[in-house]
Amino acid sequence: MNKKIFDLNDVLTVQEILDIQAKIADLKTTMNRVKVSLSNSERQHARSVAHRREAYVRSVARVGQNFERVLPRDIQVSIIAKLIDNYQIHKELKIALDELNEMNNDTIIAIGKSIMSEADSIYGALQQARKRDGSLDTAMDEVEEFYRRSNEDDTISNPPADSPVVD
User: Fold this and answer.
1) What is the reported pLDDT for 164?
2) 60 CB contacts (<8 Å, ≥6 apart)?
3) Mean pLDDT by 10 residues, the chain (167 residues)
4) CA 13, CA 34: separation in Å to the nearest integer?
5) Which of 95, 137, 146 lies closest to 119, judged by CA?
6) Cα–Cα distances in Å, from 88 out to 8, 27, 38, 127?
7) Distance, CA of 144 to chain centre
8) Distance from C-alpha of 74 to C-alpha of 93, rounded to nearest angstrom
9) Complete DSSP assignment for 4-48
């Protein structure tokens, strides 16, 4: 039998799921107040801070604050400072959300691997039983057809060793 990587004793309770969903809804409500929706074109063609430009922007802000007296009066250096602060806050939020997303994605993959492991174990046992009980033929033909179709679109060239082999 295959090694289990997801422990059914560690599943979220219904209340925990409801609490998480409520917190996510609250976060969405809060973020909707400040969100900006960009089109794909705006995302691609925007001159944004990105990693390499952050040092440039911070340097311009620092020098601008130190030499504000030489700048035109319509330039308010305090605006860039506030924008940089807000940018940093949103970057930190993104890091935290990315971490949560990765945790959830890893859990989804682990559960999926456990599901496949269980399905393969059951499939193998049914194949063995099929040798002794012909009444399984029609049902197993259906299972094999689903398995065949599910792998037609598979981009994995080498399926995992624990995948059932359908003759």
Assistant:
1) 53
2) 80
3) 69 94 96 92 86 90 96 94 94 96 94 92 93 93 90 58 48
4) 32
5) 146
6) 39, 18, 19, 57
7) 31
8) 32
9) P-S-GGGPPPHHHHHHHHHHHHHHHHHHHTT-----HHHHHH---
